[in-house]
Amino acid sequence: MDLDGRAGWRYAYNGRLPGPVLEARPGDTVRVALTNRLAEATNLHFHGLHIPPTGSGDNPFLHIPPGESFTYEFTIPEQHPSGTFWYHPHVHGSAARQVSLGLAGLFVVRGEMDEIPEIAAASERFLVLQDWPEEPSPMERIRGREGALVTASGLRDPILPAAQGGLMRLRILNASSSRFYRLRMEDHPWYVIATDGGPIPEPAGYDELLVTPGQRVEVLVKGDRAEGRYRLLNLPYDRGGPLFRGLAGETLATLEYQGRAETTVGLPTRLPEATPLPKSDLPRRTLVMSEGMMGMSFTINGRTFDDRRVDTRVRLGSVEEWEIVNRGGMDHPFHLHTNSFQVVGADGVAERARRDVVLVPRGERRVIRAGFFDYPGKTVYHCHILDHEDLGMMGTLEVAA
Predict the structure, then answer these.
(1) Given a cut of 60, is residue 323 above it in pLDDT?
(2) Hey, which of 88, 106, 158, 369 has its CA 20 to 30 A from 11?
(3) d(CA 390, CA 142)
(4) pLDDT at residue 244, rounded to an integer
(5) Where are the domains of the chain?
(6) For the segment 271-316, what is each residue's pLDDT rounded down to a tens digit?
(7) How do strand 198-206 and strand 190-195 relate by DSSP bridges?
(8) Residue 261 above 80 pLDDT?
(9) pLDDT computed for residue 249 by the predictor
(10) Is domain 2-110 annotated with CATH 2.60.40.420?
(11) How far is 17 from 11, CA to CA, in rounded Å?
């Protein structure tokens, strides 16, 4: 395949980079037939969806051998939040390689959020951020591979058309295996309306956004500036470890004013709000992420991943608080499958947004409040720098009825 004039072998869904956008609504039954034409086993992880982690659902332990097919089938719950989710492979030991070669696509759940008048009137754009590393050295795997070429929805510096007086809705996905994106739009603030787990209570304004691997964010951009072009910049961010190469002022896309909206559209004042999770009365668990053995061992609570072992057992229907501690020398984004969570502040108050990835900077800790509802069975949690996951920074979670 050709990317920005550079030919190379890539992995793709239906020959497309990124893969097709899948869309569903709460209550829909979803069937995805996956035929594996790779020379290695693969599978699908439906990242962020609250669906069964077993059988033909979001099953991280399923391996589809070369030349074989499998049909995923599941129902989106009636109460599932609308939002921006995604799909990618999750075979332990090769997740970083398969994702960095191109296997990623958006999964959009349409719902109440899309019916808000101001949001319905906004132009919608999808922005899937991917970088394209070469085969990494051992040192590059330790840090997490990054590529010099970065694309936005398969293009180098695409144009984002905007109407003066209108709103643009950007759904942003970090589909890179390791790279962090610190985003700024020239002369345009971001108005965040949703994070990983769906809408937040009201739009929140930011000049910059940090989007770590696996995270999604939905923003509104107001078309209230002078005609012209404005760059979407990726600013440097040091996530720790060796070989830091922050790229200053890298342009990911360009907003270009084209025409005027028929009517001026303002920001919505209220958004659908997720049900807050009740404070847990169970003892707080601690998960410690660390690095050892000259950087080639990545552990949670001192153990590397073993799919024959259950690391954490929780009760179906329970709410728990987990303290995620980072004792390593690099920042680690922590991801929990199947069930979203809220981040709890130092004052014990949980933020009102739902997430499924939280950044735990090196030397720091974060507390999450998670509800384990609806689905018993085994799934996983892990660092979403996928080389770190492949090198062992993952654990098995069993939800017991």
Answers:
(1) yes
(2) 158
(3) 10
(4) 54
(5) 2-110, 115-260, 285-400
(6) 998 888 999 999 999 999 999 866 578 999 999 999 999 999 999 9
(7) antiparallel
(8) yes
(9) 67
(10) yes
(11) 8
Do the domains 285-400 and 2-110 match in fold?
A: yes
Q: Are 258 and 162 in contact (CB under 8 A)?
A: yes
List pLDDT tens digits, range 130-158.
999 999 999 899 999 999 899 999 999 99
Distance of CA 222 to the CA centre of its chain: 24
Question: What pLDDT is attached to residue 7?
Answer: 85
Residue 241: the pLDDT is: 78
Q: 310 Cβ partners below 8 Å, 6+ apart?
A: 378, 396, 397, 398
Distances in Å between the alpha carbon of 125 and those of 5, 219, 320? Answer: 24, 10, 36
Give me the CATH topology for the region 115-260: Immunoglobulin-like (2.60.40)
CA distance 308 to 311: 10
Side-chain-side CA neighbours of 166 within 13 Å: the count stands at 19
Mean pLDDT of all residues belonging to the chain: 95
Q: Residue 194's pLDDT is what?
A: 97
- CA–CA dist 334, 322 (Å, integer): 11
CATH domain 285-400 topology: Immunoglobulin-like (2.60.40)
Q: How many CA atoms lie within 13 A of 345 on its CB side?
A: 6
Query: For residues 382 and 304, is the Cβ–Cβ distance under 8 A?
Result: no
For the chain, the three-class secondary structure string (H helix, E strand, C coil) is CEECCEECCCCCECCECCCCCEEECCCCEEEEEEECCCCCCECCEEECCCCCCCCCCCCCCCCECCCCEEEEEEECCCCCCCEEEEEECCCCCCHHHHHHCCCCEEEEECCHHHHCHHHHHCEEEEEEEEECCCCCCHHHHHHCCCCCCEEECCECCCEEEEEECCEEEEEEEECCCCCCEEEEECCECEEEEEECCEEEEEEEEECCEEECCCCEEEEEEECCCCCCEEEEEEECCCCECCCCCCCCCEEEEEEEEEEECCCCCCCCCCCCCCCCCCCCCCCCEEEEEEEEHHHCEEEECCECCCCCCCCEEEECCCEEEEEEEECCCECEEEEECCCCEEEECCCCCECCCCECEEEECCCCEEEEEEECCCCCEEEEEEECCHHHHHCCCEEEEEEEC
Distance from the Cα of residue 141 to its chain's centroid: 20
Tell me which amino acid residue 200 is: I
